[in-house]
TrEMBL record:
Residues annotated as domain Response regulatory: 3-119
GO BP term, example: regulation of DNA-templated transcription
Annotated PANTHER family: TRANSCRIPTIONAL REGULATORY PROTEIN NARL-RELATED, TWO-COMPONENT RESPONSE REGULATOR
Transmembrane segments: none
Protein name: DNA-binding response regulator
Domain HTH luxR-type: 145-210
Keywords per UniProt: DNA-binding, Phosphoprotein, Transcription, Transcription regulation
This protein's record includes keyword Transcription regulation: yes
Keyword Transcription regulation: yes
SMART domains per UniProt: HTH_LUXR, REC
Length: 213
């Protein structure tokens, strides 16, 4: 029997999915949550095999909830089921610790298979997302040799790239699901490592290196 917790802020979808999954042989829905805070608290307490997690939720978004849950209860598998399929959200969820990612609208059988796979310790994505993820890592491997600013961490380079694209600190925080304070501190670290005086100089250096496109 695979135990599941459903976390989604839309009551019709949340209750409907819980009812649907509860009718499937081999799956037991042990709880539901309407926001990220309750999702983390309930999962830590109930220890389900899998949490089906939405991204856009009040109080604590699904990516940050996934990050906290992965730290507090690493034995709980997390399957993101959301409307968003943009690359930023997908990779933010993966970095946070999600082991699966499906877009709402997936067939019941696909969701059940994904839950079973995640519960067994596997990783699963929708077909279109899997192709994009493969292409991303193929591109990353091809460009690894010529990675600019090797003194920066992956997160610092990621933020510098968004900085060079003209994003404000607030927009960067929203894109990467980070707190504004974390972004401010990271930007300061980037300035120090690049030995630049201000944002404008950092952007020029980054764009000259091919970032921000």
């Amino acid at each position: 029997m695979t135990s599941v917790l459903v976390a989604d802020d839309h009551p019709v979808f949340r209750d409907g999915l819980a009812m649907l999954l509860g009718s499937v042989d081999g799956i037991e829905v042990v709880g539901t949550a309407a926001n990220g805070v309750v999702a983390v608290e309930s999962a830590v307490r109930l220890r389900p095999d899998v949490v089906v997690m939405d991204v856009q939720m009040p109080e604590l978004n699904g990516v940050e909830a996934t990050r906290r849950l992965a730290a507090e209860a690493p034995d709980v598998g997390i399957l993101v089921l959301t409307m968003s399929e943009d690359d930023g959200t997908v990779f933010a969820a993966l970095r946070a610790g999600a082991r699966g990612y499906l877009v709402k609208g997936a067939e019941q059988e696909e969701i059940v298979r994904a839950i079973t796979t995640v519960a067994a310790g596997g990783v699963v994505f929708g077909a279109a997302l899997a192709l994009r993820i493969a292409e991303f890592f193929a591109g990353a491997a091809a460009s690894a040799v010529a990675e600019p600013f090797p003194q920066l961490t992956v997160r610092e380079r990621e933020i510098l790239d968004l900085l060079a694209a003209g994003r404000s600190n607030g927009q960067i925080a929203g894109t990467l699901y980070l707190s504004p304070k974390t972004v401010r501190n990271t930007v300061s670290n980037v300035f120090a490592k690049l030995q630049v005086a201000d944002r404008a100089e950092a952007i020029v250096r980054a764009r000259d290196a091919g970032l921000g496109r």
